[in-house]
Amino acid sequence: MPGAAVPSVEVVFAPATVTSAVTGLLFSLSLIVAVGAQNTFVLQQGLRREHVRTVVLICAVSDAVLIAAGVAGAGLLFDGRPWLIEVVRVAGAAFLFGYGLLAALRAVRPTALRTGPDAPAVSRSAVAGTCLAFTWLNPAVYLDTVVLLGSVANTQSAQPWWFGAGAVLGSVLWFVALGFGARLLAPVFTRPVAWRFLDVFIAMVLVAIGLRVLFTPIG
Prior knowledge:
The chain crosses the membrane at residues 12-35, 55-77, 83-105, 126-149, 161-185, 197-215. By secondary structure, the chain is mostly helical. The chain is built from eight helices and no strands. The longest helix is centred in the middle third of the chain and has 27 residues, at 82-108.
């Protein structure tokens, strides 16, 4: 039709859009790249080469859902409903203490890394359930990802969803690198003493996070 405006693809990839996406990616990495319960679990599974794809997929998809919820404004659900965070706080602390105790018990009787046919099998459903618990029973994930990241995303003028897309990409890159890159350290963990140190470290991290979750005021 004469005189009709032709849509331009360049608008989609405008500088503001790219800037928002890159900002989201960097902001996401700044929140996620830390010593925490979920990251130590991903590292542990990566070292064992045990259902790593499942673990990485669960972490990445869960983060994507939480990021989308934050960008969509789901953080408002917590306004005036402190009991929601309290429920997650108590359940999360109990889980962290329990898993920390298991890590401490493993440290008492460490074993070498075994990935061959004779390695003890752990079901995919058990690993998936543990990964889901580490992800969704952590009250900090709702405050960091849903509330904080969502608030920052909505300051990005007309580009909050591009900010969210960048944040999702950052999350995916991190979990893929952590889960699949951990195998580079596998030769070190062929010795039981290495697992002892790792399990002691995991136990200390989880108990410390559990105490912080239980006793630090959230708000």
